Every structure is written in structure tokens, then in C-alpha cells.
């Protein structure tokens, strides 16, 4: 492949980086992707999941069906990098590398033109809204996607802190189950000189926060791993003559799998019920940004390892799941498949840091690994 052709995909990635869009608002991103990948002659290109795109290669009704997924959304973060393709959108930037994941999938599209599948069909999914956990659900609920029915589904994520190009994977849970919980505490306001005439939620909220620290098990090597992170709290008003009557606590929960998450949330709800009964404070809970653990199918994991070794890539067998969430887990709940990681460089800033950037050197090796996974299954 010529240097100019290699640069084509880096330049595409840089264009996406300049014009990032947050989850569910990837309207211009969708247009840019569609315009770029159309040159690689998919059998069909369809809008899916709102602002996503689905490309089809191969037309055989019989034979295997493979889905390869990349995410396309950016984060509501200000970029501090000063390179020439820095974000042009105030307060939004690609600090998770989804611009790179998109470029990898675009390169894979070009490889499928050069290496057409002889059996079955291959679908390339450019998925929106991964960061909020809403995109996978939107795609899976789209009537168009009901016709796909993959028997293998693969995805990747770049990994800062790992040697450039190293493939990282494990069978079973690859990423954690993540769930954010919003707890509201409703009491009764009163004059701050007469707090006994009201019902201030402050001490119940404080007790709850302390008790969550006692409940958690932050050891990622443990099967009982349960990380509870306070992310936001609010109470009352900045009016010093009023004793507060309402407050909220927002927490993010992380466990190794869905079963452990169910047990953890049940434990928290029991605690809240007890606190409400003891204090008279009305307590309500709601949930947001749910990510199901990526459960890597054993055969799909073996296929990734064999394909990586065939291409001469370094391979790391991860011993415990990553603590972050990824909504590709919803696909692995429905279809056999796996997610793997690829090293973004040992000196790379971490994901979701304001100085992070995707390493363009990953585009070609990652696309080649996806191609090998496809060819080993279809030809």
C-alpha cells in the first residue's frame, strides 16, 4: 500500500477529529463517513440507530454473517492539544479515539473491495452514542438491523499504556458492567434557626455515602469486584437562613459482570429502604448510562488470538476485565463475539484525558486484523 493511500485514512481521521459531535448528535459525522466510504462500493449503505451507518459486503444468503463495529461519537471535553487538526468545536473533542476506530473501519471497507468474501455477508457498523450507552440499544432496536443476524460480532478499543499495536484480549468479561444511579432524598425545608421543624436530608445522605464505601470491593482481581464512585451531589440552596429539604447523590457502579451488578444494586436499594424508614426522608432512585459487561465468546477469543499471532502481532492475555464500560457488551449479550484492545502506546495519555490523541499508526494493523478475522471465517 502506498504512503499516499495510508495517509488517506489518517487524513479522514483528522477531519473527524476537527469536527467532533457528542452522543446522539453525530449528524455531520454520519454525512462525512457516508461520503468517504461510498468510494469503497458497499453492496448497501444504510442509516441505522439514528445517526449510525451500516455497510454490507457480500450478497450470499447462505454462509456466515460477520459484524464489525466501530463507535463514532466524541466527548463533551475541551481539547488542549495544539496540532493542526485540533477540535474546532468548543467543549467537544475525540478524547476516546472513536475517530480512530472509525478510520479503521473505513480502511477495512477498502480492504473488502480488494479481498471480497466468497461466502456469506459482512456488515460494518459505524455506531453512534457509545459514550452514553444508548447507541448499541438504538441499533439493536432498529428494524433494519433485525435482518442482519450475525453469527460473529467483533469490535476493538485502543488502549493507552500498552505497547503500540499489541493486541489485548481475554475470554469472558472483557470490560465491566457499569451503571450510574441517581438517588434523591426528599425531606422538608425549614428555617435554619429551627431545623427541628423540617427534615434535612444531609445526615442521611452522608450516612449513605459512608456506607457505600463499606459495601464496595475495589479489588479488580476479585470475583466480587464492586467499585462505587461518587460523581456528583447537590443539596439545598445558597440561602443561609434555610435548612435544606432536598438533595441528590449520583454514583457510578462497576462490577465484573451483570449478575454481580444485580446483587450490588439490590444491596444498595435495601440500604436506602432502611435509611428512609429510620429517618422519614423519602428516597427515590433512577438509573442512567448503563453498560453491560462485554462477555467475550471463547471461540471468538481464540479466533482473535490466532489471527493476531498469524499476523505476527504481540498478544497479551488479560487476566481481569478492564474497569471501564463499553456498550458493545449489549451486542455480546445477543450474538457470539468479542471485543479486543490494541495498544495506543506506552506513553499515550489516558482515555478521556484532555491531551489524549489516537495514534494513526494503528489504522493499518487493526484493519488487517479485522480482515484476517473475516477471511478465516468466510473463505
TrEMBL record:
Cofactor, how bound (note): The Mn(2+) ion enhances activity.
Alphabetized InterPro entries for the sequence: Amidohydrolase (IPR017439), Bact_exopeptidase_dim_dom (IPR036264), Peptidase_M20 (IPR002933)
Residues at which Mn(2+) binds: 96, 98, 131, 157, 352
The keyword Metal-binding belongs to this UniProt entry's keyword annotation: yes
Keyword Manganese: yes
GO MF term set: hydrolase activity; metal ion binding
Keywords: Hydrolase, Manganese, Metal-binding
Cofactors, names only: Mn(2+)
Protein's name according to its UniProt entry: Amidohydrolase
The organism of origin for this protein: Spirosoma arboris
